[in-house]
Write a structure and sequence with these properties.
The chain has 451 residues and is α+β, with helices and mostly antiparallel strands. It has two domains: 318 residues, no CATH class; 95 residues. It is built from twelve helices and 19 strands. It is globular and about 80 Å long. It starts with a strand and ends with a strand.
Length: 451
């Protein structure tokens, strides 16, 4: 088979890359240029609110350069998980951004959009038919889940991207999308070994993050041939090594050897990673097993309320010795105190970073910790009032073993100490949905934009 290359632009559109790296990639004659643009890493806020993760100017800079590079190479640009959460409004927003750029540059572009918010009636029907399968950590769901405000997205795979490419699109904009699908679609259509294709896609999804000595986000070149694929950072001062490439298979997965996609499962346990030279790595091997049913992951996020918070540092060794117990007492007292302040429902949570906020209860007594207290109310005014009441309780709560007058238990960094955080969201779905055919949960549009 003829070799096939592609450029993974950056780990997340809007995070930047070196323009010179993209230029080098274009000179290598890629079959396409791709970039992921979203994640649930930041929690439920971005999906629930439809807010974009990065600044508008950052997105426009990366998209403009990506479009220019794809035009010079004469190949498609594929962007997945528009905006961060991948909601329908973000796909439309990226379409509008593409149109602005195309008009400014005098380009005429065909743009295929894949919208990934399924019809709520379809979701209810799948639920009733037992075709929504709970994934680890999934919340309990019922019909009210599908009536809630916020957004629900289905994670697209290669089949949806291929349908968009079949329109002859210059640009493909996908809502929520499996990162690896961006990079697997065209190599699969070209006939390369699916195990190698998916393994390469998993590694390339974050651009040059698979390199050893990168200093920031940048671009990566992947080249397929009959013996596997070769990965090369497009900054000549950055190196890929067998260890750096293999290590990236650990990223964002619970099992470094298994990658589950809508149409099958990759087992990369037999893959080999060999240095071609001091900058490039060849990878080969693995096994791809097609699934007997087509499933897409569902992610949902709905409003929780309005959030106000305060935080402060703790250095008192007497308090640090009993920090978990002290926090439990404060939380218990707050649930009573806040009922005196709240006019509606509320939630309160106290965590300690440096203590047990990150990984749970530890037997090690910290030398210093930061307490974070969050209050969620039905309005911002309610949440703020409760957080101010909670702040006073926590600031002066007794420490067992302390004798003497009143004490201050933590040092807060701001005045005023309470920060109103705005709307808060919660995940409502973490499920796999069985589809009768790959396109029933998605909507497609094609647009001609620009001069």
């Amino acid at each position: 088979m003829q070799p096939l290359s592609y450029v993974a632009l950056t780990g997340s559109l809007g995070c930047g890359f070196q323009e010179a790296s993209l230029d080098r990639g274009v000179e290598r004659g890629p079959a396409f240029i791709g970039s992921d643009s979203g994640s649930t890493d930041g929690g439920p806020y971005y999906l629930g609110s439809d807010a974009w993760i990065w600044a508008d100017a950052a997105y426009e800079r990366d998209l403009r350069l990506g479009l220019a590079g794809a035009r010079r190479a004469g190949v498609p640009l594929i962007i997945g998980s528009c905006g961060g959460g991948g909601g329908d409004a973000a796909v439309t927003g990226y379409l509008q951004m593409t149109e602005r750029i195309a008009k400014a540059e005098g380009w005429r572009l065909k743009v295929a959009c894949v919208y990934t918010e399924p019809d709520r009636d379809l979701l209810r029907s799948k639920f009733d038919d037992g075709k929504l399968l709970a994934l680890p950590g999934a919340p309990v769901i019922d019909h009210d889940t599908f009536r809630a405000d916020g957004h629900i997205v289905a994670m697209a795979g290669t089949e949806q991207i291929q349908r968009a490419l079949d329109t002859g699109a210059d640009v493909v904009l996908v809502g929520r999308c499996a990162d690896a699908a961006i990079y697997a679609t065209i190599p699969l259509a070209a006939g390369f070994d699916p195990a190698n294709v998916w393994n390469a896609a998993k590694i390339a999804e974050c651009g040059a993050a698979a390199a050893l000595n990168r200093s920031g986000q940048d671009s990566l070149l992947c080249t397929f041939d009959d013996d596997g694929f070769v990965l090369e950072a497009l900054d000549p001062d950055v190196r890929c090594t067998p260890a750096s490439v293999a290590a990236h298979t650990l990223y964002e997965v619970s099992d470094p050897y298994r990658l589950i996609m809508p149409s099958g499962v990759l087992d990369s346990s037999a893959a080999t990673y060999t240095a071609v030279d001091d900058r490039r790595v060849r990878v080969n091997g693995g096994r791809w097993t097609p699934s007997d049913q087509y499933t897409v992951k569902l992610e949902g996020s709905a409003p929780l309320g309005w959030l106000s918070s305060f935080w402060g540092s703790v250095r008192d060794p007497l308090l640090l010795l009993q920090l978990p117990e002290w926090c439990a007492e404060v939380e218990d007292r707050l649930r009573t105190r806040l009922k005196e302040v709240a006019s509606g429902a509320f939630q309160v949570q106290l965590r300690t970073y440096g203590g047990d906020g990150t990984v749970g209860r530890s037997a090690v007594v910290p030398h210093e910790a930061v307490i974070v207290l969050d209050v969620v109310g039905e309005t911002q005014e309610e949440a703020s009032a409760m957080a101010r009441a909670a702040y006073h309780v926590a600031l002066h709560w007794p420490i067992k073993g302390w004798s003497g007058g009143s004490m201050t238990t933590f040092a807060h960094p701001y005045s005023a100490p309470v920060v109103d955080r705005g709307p808060a969201y919660r995940f409502t779905l973490n499920h796999a949905m069985v589809l009768d055919e790959p396109h029933e949960a998605f909507r497609y549009e094609t647009h001609e934009v620009g001069a």
